[in-house]
What does this fold into?
Amino acid sequence: MVDVVREYRIGQQRIRALDGITLGVSGGQFASVVGPSGSGKSTLLHLLGALDWPDSGSIRFDGAEIAKMTDDEQSSFRRRKVGFIFQFFNLLPTLAAWENVAVPGLLDGRALKQLKPHAVALLELVGLGNRVDHRPGELSGGQMQRIAVARALALDPPLILADEPTGNLDSATGAAIVDLLRNLAHDSATRRAVVMVTHNAEAAMAADRVVTMHDGKLQSDLLVDEAALVEDA
Ligand SMILES: Nc1ncnc2c1ncn2[C@@H]1O[C@H](COP(=O)(O)OP(=O)(O)OP(=O)(O)O)[C@@H](O)[C@H]1O
Ligand SMILES: [Mg+2]
It folds into this structure.
């Protein structure tokens, strides 16, 4: 992102949700984004995932300017390049765990039956190999979030965006999800970029890097060792 501005207009009121953000995230890196409520964290994540667009500034992924893509290119970018994980899991309640994981493949035009082996393998990867036929309502919060992580990986995207993925979990369960996210970034075969918004200091410090936002601006951007020194001071 270079000099990104996103302004919301409600009647006469203008809110600069993002006020000149310049930020780069590389593959293999696990970055956390922290800051007070309303500081622009979710807006930042939406723009990174092409769910929303800047009023000015540039957002590039692997050199391609997202705002200049056609509608088809943008939707294929969202589907294939980005995996989203949300605070409230956003699972489909009537589908089994493996079917939820298969949804991105379905949207990509593949047949449900063909998708099952890979969906089950992803559930095994996140430690849910023994719950593939359960529906979300039959699972714990941590298990539901594991399904969401597996779903985010369905089309093997290079970028994972998570908005408060531990916000609804107890601290031990949340820590396990953060471990999972860290492994996704540090896996040397895939070297994904993982960006996690969080209100939880412990989760933030489990990342490689902590980006702090304030009033739509970057307040600081520190590697975790540096951030620990600031916390201690
Ligand atoms: N769709 C919208 N229309 C108008 N204003 C919005 C909209 N979405 C967000 N805002 C405003 O933009 C600012 C940034 O919102 P954002 O959701 O990015 O904050 P946040 O850092 O994610 O907060 P939280 O920690 O509470 O989730 C806030 O002042 C918010 O009121
Ligand atoms: Mg938010």
